[in-house]
């Protein structure tokens, strides 16, 4: 799905210059994590971490923010293709806790189709089905972050955010 068809759910980030982003694809059991470089040009899937509670997740994310020098966090909001929300209450709880705990801004983004796109990419790449689960959530978070950053670049003239 093209980045331009998605909408930023929360107000625009206060950042006009490029920053290092951490993206979260929050699922019922696991949370995919991806990271951008500080120039917002390269996004790398990192890991999937177990989802226990919003508070436990926020503590883990706070440690990642500190150790990876993250300047902003992006959280995917689960929405179906018809616009109906799935798991939105869980994500709202996560966002509320992250916003209180983290010293960096937290932004939400429509994650529509990222898991399905990640599954298709893994299958096309020949990753065996039993190994896909290990990579799926982090790749979905990376796709989420790539789409978000592509729109940020588009809105700033395509030469990089702030560039």
From TrEMBL:
<protein>
    <recommendedName>
        <fullName>Putative pre-16S rRNA nuclease</fullName>
        <ecNumber>3.1.-.-</ecNumber>
    </recommendedName>
</protein>
<dbReference type="Pfam" id="PF03652">
    <property type="entry name" value="RuvX"/>
</dbReference>
<feature type="domain" description="YqgF/RNase H-like">
    <location>
        <begin position="19"/>
        <end position="118"/>
    </location>
</feature>
<dbReference type="InterPro" id="IPR037027">
    <property type="entry name" value="YqgF/RNaseH-like_dom_sf"/>
</dbReference>
<dbReference type="GO" id="GO:0016788">
    <property type="term" value="F:hydrolase activity, acting on ester bonds"/>
</dbReference>
<comment type="similarity">
    <text>Belongs to the YqgF HJR family.</text>
</comment>
<dbReference type="InterPro" id="IPR012337">
    <property type="entry name" value="RNaseH-like_sf"/>
</dbReference>
<comment type="function">
    <text>Could be a nuclease involved in processing of the 5'-end of pre-16S rRNA.</text>
</comment>
<keyword id="KW-0378">Hydrolase</keyword>
<dbReference type="InterPro" id="IPR006641">
    <property type="entry name" value="YqgF/RNaseH-like_dom"/>
</dbReference>
<dbReference type="InterPro" id="IPR005227">
    <property type="entry name" value="YqgF"/>
</dbReference>
<dbReference type="GO" id="GO:0005829">
    <property type="term" value="C:cytosol"/>
</dbReference>
<keyword id="KW-0690">Ribosome biogenesis</keyword>
<keyword id="KW-0963">Cytoplasm</keyword>
<dbReference type="GO" id="GO:0000967">
    <property type="term" value="P:rRNA 5'-end processing"/>
</dbReference>
<dbReference type="GO" id="GO:0004518">
    <property type="term" value="F:nuclease activity"/>
</dbReference>
<keyword id="KW-0540">Nuclease</keyword>
């Amino acid at each position: 799905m093209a980045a331009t068809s998605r909408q930023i759910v929360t107000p625009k980030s206060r950042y006009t210059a490029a920053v290092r982003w951490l993206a979260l694809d929050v699922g019922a059991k696991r949370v995919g994590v991806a990271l951008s470089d500080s120039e917002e040009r390269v996004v790398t899937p990192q890991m999937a971490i177990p989802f226990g509670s919003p508070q436990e997740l926020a503590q883990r994310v706070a440690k990642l923010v500190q150790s990876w020098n993250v300047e902003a966090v992006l959280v995917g909001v689960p929405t179906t293709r018809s616009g109906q929300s799935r798991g939105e209450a869980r994500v709202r709880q996560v966002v509320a806790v992250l916003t209180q705990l983290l010293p960096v801004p937290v932004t939400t983004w429509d994650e529509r189709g990222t898991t399905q796109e990640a599954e298709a990419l893994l299958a096309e790449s020949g990753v065996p089905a039993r190994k896909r689960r290990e990579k799926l959530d982090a790749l979905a978070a990376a796709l989420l972050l790539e789409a978000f950053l592509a729109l940020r670049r588009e809105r700033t003239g395509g030469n990089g955010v702030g560039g």
